[in-house]
Amino acid sequence: MYCFGLYNERGDVIEGLVEEKKEKTRKSKKRDDSYTFWDFILDVLFWIPELILFPFRLIFWSLRGIGRLVSDLFDIV
Question: Which UniProt keywords apply (predicted)?
Answer without folding.
Answer: Membrane, Transmembrane, Transmembrane helix
